[in-house]
Fold these 3 entries.
Entry 1:
Amino acid sequence: MTSSGYAAVFFDAGETLVHPHPTFPDLFAEILRREGYDVSPETIRERGHVVFDRFRAAAEANELWTTSPERSRRFWHDVYGIFLRELGIPDANGLIDLVYTEFTDLGNYRLFEDVTPVLDRLRDAGLLLGVVSNFEEWLERLLEDLGVRGYFQVSVVSGVEGFEKPDPRIFRLAMARAGVTAERSVYVGDNPEFDVDPARAVGMFPVLIDRRERFAGAPGARITALDQLPALLGVG
């Protein structure tokens, strides 16, 4: 346990530990360019609300989109279809299927550069580490391929467990598996609605990681890079 009293740190995955390479907008734009459509990453970035809005709608409808390949495909086809319609691009020659295939290819993901050094520091300080993520079941394989699966003593992935954030059960299950109380647990994620608010509601200490500077006015603990986390938690 650190001097601050924390015993465990749990992490979201997407945009916290891992990301499409080089970014979601860049990869999306690259796929479209290969298919003959000239769309800039910035144009796609400006429409990022499409993903957040669809996440919100899925949670409100309890779609559990991560819990089977069929549900995942349907969800992401909807997301990519909305993008293409907003860009005025037809779904010709199975373009949505192509985009989906690219974004489920493990080779198109990378760790953020600050992840491994920070995991080393936290583990060396005696903190238990875990992953709690709305992600398909292949997250475990992705973390293994990226060389960090061994850092996490606890893994709670919605695609395996059958419920998704912001459901409080996903956080409570992680803490139960880790054998830690909420008061000694930290949760780090990139979305106020799905990470910060529900973690706080169950008594954890939530940390918003805002790598893209999207939530500058967000209340509470906020960092813009993971290497700011050890100091925030009192880890030398």
Entry 2:
Amino acid sequence: MSQIDQQLAKALPNLPKKLGKAARYALDHPDRIAFDSMRTVATACDVASPTMLRLARALDYESYEAFRSEFQQRFVNQGFGNRADALQSGVGSSQDDHFSNDIAQAATRNIAQTMKLLDIAAVEEFARCVQNSNRTFILGSGSMHWMAALMESTGQMAIPGLRTDHSGSATMVETIASIAEQDTALVMAFAPYARETVVAAAYASKRKAKVFALTDKASSPLVEHADHVFFAPTTSPHYYPSVVSTIVMIEILLSATVATSNAIERIKLTENIRNQSGAYL
């Protein structure tokens, strides 16, 4: 039994009738709490929407979203298949609340939480380290490999020395084998965490490079190997963890680096080359 299930079961005997009805629904239908809106859930268990908020606060959660995120995290930990099953079972469950709105709302909350957790001093330190480093490695596996490639491709026009893994068969540690104290690494991983990325973070730290981590929560295995950590929540009704706040953090880090560097001439040069090549319409 999960922690939230234990909380509900323990509180249930002492809850008022309507809160008890909502609590039983939550215990019996954790997928619907995770992926349906508060109004849809309230309708399903025949209580008013404020009752769901009262239930959350009765269990010492600051908001209904904090309560709901406990259920969403359960599905993140259980894997993509369960998330897809829950998503399918919820389609058409409400005429008023389409799942696309839930996805958009979750993305908005993730961005708000990212900004709430943002350490501006760490952003400034990242910018300084990138400017002073010989090389900056951007490392991620799976879907985060493409996020790393995005950061490299959009950052290279302004920032020299950015590189990610294009090796194909080589392991990530082989790619950064020569990383040293004069280098910086940004490592990106979200639950479930790619072992390769965690190993690379540990290696970069051991080699005394400056290590920054972009991850989803404080319990992430990247945290212990990083000098600074940026958090980007991934909660979503989508079957795959959301990357919206990850992209926001990438844009923040690149913008901060360019804003405090002599990047204008490099950007203009890249622009001129593109215009002369005729590659873009």
Entry 3:
Amino acid sequence: MDQDRAARRITLTGGFVNLVLTSIQAVGGVLFGSVALLADALHSLTDLVSDIVVYMAVRLGAAEADENHPYGHRRFETLASLAVGVVIAVAGVMLIIEAAERLQSQSWVSPEQPALAVAAITIVAKEGLFRATMRVANRHDHALLRANAVHHRTDALSSIAVFIGLLASMYGFSSGDLVAALVVGLLLLRAGLRIVWEAGLELSEAGVDSETYTVMRELILETGGVEDLHLLKTKTVGGRIFAEAHVQVHPKLSVTQGHEIAHRAVDRVMEALPLLQDLTVHVDPEDDQEDAPALPNGYDIEVAVRKAWKDTTGTNPIELTLHLLVQGTTVVLVCSSEVNDDAISSGRDAVLGLDHIEDVQVLSPR
């Protein structure tokens, strides 16, 4: 798919940029004595790991559904997000602990001025990555890419904190570099926990947000032939939406007409929500959401109706349709033109006397 190819391409670009930045920041942190730059190097390293995991997840997630994965492989993207979130959060905790210990022991060194240039380069590169990734994510409506783009923006903001900290350290606020490192650690922890939380929600099969749910509900209800809607259920897998719904239609529609209504409802929602991967619509003749008694066995009723009609009129029905509803079953029967009115009346009474029968409609080609 085009969106998967675009996702892999921009992710590879992000991985290359993060590899270069990690090297520059690490070398600059050591050469110019900046803990904040070293912290940002660790941040960029986690970004590189994130890009690798995202790339692998996109490749695996793009695989078609198979016997073992009937809903596709997008769950790999969710697992990837969870892993990335944990790595980022752990890195943040380590930075916070390191910076806090150095601040407490007052063991800091004022960084040299070239460290500012490294921080400035990082800000520009990260903001550029954010814009490029978000552009691809919006063009293809790719949820995982959009999350990765937001991650790049977080990186740019943390690099701004590093830049300010370095500037403060060079102009008399000697602990500014460590404070900046502490801020980076907090941003890492926050970003990691947010990714873990969102991935956890998806793994627990939480439904879509209320706005998307409302859109789906209204589109289905506005479909011609749909009288009501109940049991609309949703879940997300790798940023894709899977849903099922029960629609109520006129109780005496044909199977083919109910099937056509369901297809139109699915098409409407699919067109409006590009992230919708699958929607299953179950057609109901009435609301069976709560405390609805079990319907009688339609096959047994059909056998009994055919027997009662044959025993009474001596003929078999040409066509027989049953409308099975909670309040009772309506029988629609087409009889032979050879059956006279008296026989039709007797046959109708015989069928009406059966269990679960509420009404009998006899049609004759005469």
